[in-house]
Amino acid sequence: MKKLKRVLGALGMLSLLAIVLTACGSRKSLSQQDVLQNDRASNTITWGVKADTKLFGLMDVKDNQVKGFDVDIAKAITKRILGKNGQAKFVQVTSQTRIPLLKNGNIDAIIATMTITPEREKQVDFSTSYFDAGQSLLVKKGSNVKSVKDLNKTGTKVLGVTGANSVANIKKYAPKARVLELSDYAQAMTALKSGQGVALTTDNGILYGMASQNPGYKVVGGAFTKEPYGIAINKGQGAFKKEVNQALKEIEADGTYNRILKKWFGNVAGFNYKEAAR
Ligand code: GLU
Questions:
Q1: Alpha carbon of 239 to those of 33, 89, 165, 222: distances in Å?
Q2: Which of 11, 171, 182, 222 is positioned for an S-S bond with 187, CB 3.0–4.6 A?
């Protein structure tokens, strides 16, 4: 009798182990999942967008919606890939959190003022570029900073955002300056206003958005780098990337891209949006 109990007990343990193993086996790791297939099944694409960046992705507190060029492009691509009832879901990212959120599978793609760079290409894949920005400077009106050269002095403080390649760029173009990193663009603007730095540096499109909200500030120094924006996708998601590139082509061909470009940049004083167009 004792022997039988022991045998039955062992069999029970074995079947439990089998159940646990099957459950683990059926949950595919992120790299084994097909993002395009999952998105088609849920009829939803989850995009990482900025929520602190006027013109590209900014939270509207009145209706709790993020609005901007990147957001509208994401919506248009979603409709192209999933059909007109396809849903675009938005998750807020910052320059620092966007790659980790993508790699963890919290989002399917990043469309957030993100430059295609060789360093980033080691970690993620990019779509073809959809917007050509360039790095510039935002200063208080009347400032004697006129170009990036004026920042190359010991003791000069420049403001940037963690995770933005603008920080590394400014260290190259003005190596003597000290760069103070803030966690997002709203905080960087507050720091500029409180005099923590003589200039805020990032891409021209972003800075023109800030200048339009803050009339005491202006963009100076022209574009001293080239910042082609791409949509970042996890490596190994070739089918999804192909669809995104195809959708970009189609929205360009049917005039959707130009309509969105004009909607956000058509009336931004001083910004030549035609140079940024794809
Ligand atoms: N385009 C630059 C970058 O990808 C600056 C803008 C941003 O912080 O997102 O880092």
A1: 12, 20, 28, 38
A2: 182
